[in-house]
Amino acid sequence: MESGGETRRIVVGGGISGSLLSKSLQFNAAVTLIDPKEYLEITWANLSNMMEPSFAERSVINHRDYLTNGLIVTSVATNITDTEVLTADGRRICYDYLVIATGHMDLVPMTKTERFINIKQKIQSADSILIVGGGPTVVELAGEIATDFPDKKVRLVHKGARLLEFIGTKASDKALRWLKSRNVEVKLEQAVELSHNMQNHNRRNHQSGLPFPLCRKAFGFIMA
User: Fold this and answer.
1) Any residues with CB less than 8 A from the CB of 166 and at least 6 apart, and which?
2) What pLDDT shows up at residue 224?
C-alpha cells in the first residue's frame, strides 16, 4: 500500500547497485536503505585506499552524503515477508516495492572512521608481508606496498610459472622485473598452506621457511 501518496521502497544493501538505486529514487518515492555499515565503499579503489588515506577519504562515502531525502537503517535484514523487512535491531519496515542488492558479504567495520583505521593499521603495523597469488590484483598490491613502504619486506608466492598468466610473456616478464627492482621477493611455482588458526607468529611457508606477520590473499587480510 502507498502511504501519504508516496510509494514505499526498501533497498537492502548499500553497495554500488543499492546506493545508486537509492540515490536515484529518493525524490520520487519514500526510500529506505538498509545496510549494516554507514558508508558506500568504491571497492575497486581498495588497493589505493590501503596506501593513501587521502584517496580512501574520497572513495569511502557516508550514505547520508548522497541519500539526503531517505531513511537509512544501519542494521542487518534478518527476515523478509510479503509486506515487511525485519532487521537485527528489531525494526519492522513496511514496503510496496523491495530491492535486494546485498551482493556478497565482507567483514568490514560499520563506520567510515573505523574503516580508515582498519586499512591503515593492517599495512603499517606489519614489518613483513606475504602476498599469495599472481593475478592483476596481487601484482598491483605488491607494487603499491613496495612503492609506499620500501622498508617493509614483501614476498609474493604464486603457484603458476609466471605472473599475469592471462597476458603475453613480455608483459609478464616486465612486471616481474619491476617488482624485483623494488625488492619484492617473488616465488613462482610454489604454494602456501594457510591454517585456519593464524595465532602462531611462527607459522611458516613450508617451502620458503620464513614467517610473515601479515598475509594477504585475494579475499582479504589474515593477521597472525
Assistant:
1) 135
2) 28
Higher pLDDT, 201 or 177: 177
Give the helix, strand, coil percentages of the chain, each rounded to 5: 30, 30, 40
CA distance 207 to 136: 24
Helices (H), 52-157: 53-59, 63-66, 112-124, 136-148
More confident residue, 182 or 204: 182
Please check whether the two domains, 8-113 and 125-223, share a CATH topology: yes
Grid coordinates of 91:
525494526
- pLDDT tier for residue 221 given thresholds of 50, 70 and 90: very low
207 phi/psi in degrees, rounded to 5:
-105, -35
Q: What is the pairing mode between strands 30-35 and 71-74? A: parallel
Rg of the chain (C-alpha set): 22
- d(CA 67, CA 51) in angstroms, rounded, equals 28
Total residues belonging to the chain: 224
How far are the Cα atoms of 39, 160, 161, 220 from residue 102, in angstroms, in the given order?
14, 33, 37, 19
Residue 219: per-residue pLDDT: 35
**Span 153-172, mean pLDDT?**
93
Which of the listed CATH numbers 3.40.50.1980, 2.30.30.40, 2.60.120.260, 3.50.50.60 matches domain 125-223?
3.50.50.60
Mean pLDDT of 199-220: 43
223, pLDDT greater than 90? no
Superfamily of domain covering 8-113: FAD/NAD(P)-binding domain (3.50.50.60)
